[in-house]
Amino acid sequence: MADRKQIEKMIESVARRGASFTNHVQKTAMAVIEHYRDHGDSTLACQLLDAMPKVGGTKLRQYLATFMRGEFAREDKATVFRKDAGSKPADALLKQAKAVRWDSFKADSVHKEFDLVASASRLVQKAMKAARDGKIEESVALGFATVVAEFLEAENLSTEDEKVTTPGELLAARAKAEAEAANATKH
Hints:
This protein is mostly helical and 187 residues long. The protein has two domains: 17-109, no CATH class; 116-186, no CATH class. It is 66% helix and 6% strand. The chain contains seven helices and two strands; from the N terminus they run αααββαααα. It has helices spanning 4-39, 43-51, 54-68, 91-99, 116-132, 138-154, 167-186, and strands spanning 70-75, 78-83. The protein has a two-stranded antiparallel ribbon. α5 packs antiparallel against α6.
């Protein structure tokens, strides 16, 4: 068994190695982010995350995902990166990454750009799914979709993502539902 003096030396060694390791990971993470910015290649980020010990890997994952603008997932025992649509880290984001250390990083410490149209469209899709699943009345979902569509049109906002329901499609769905409701009450 080790005595107190030996244990204190081991602790000092852990502190030195830990600081050296943390600094090395920071330098490597910055190089990975810059490489991704310049070449669009996320494989090095995935390799770095796979090489990390379990302790600290979660913070590094959040750090890289934030500054590379995407998310990491495990698939078939390997790490994969899914970038946010049309995003690439800009120089301003790279400056933020340099100012924040990975080991003290908190995801909410970095300003994230908010996409109102995408968020509104996701809410409408969730409402429509809830209606299809019978969790809410379809008229409630369509009413919500119409309000969102009218707001987006009034603010002259639109989305370029073809998978997202557009305001025009939402209004057409509302009109169709109203016509069907009117026909149902006549019969």
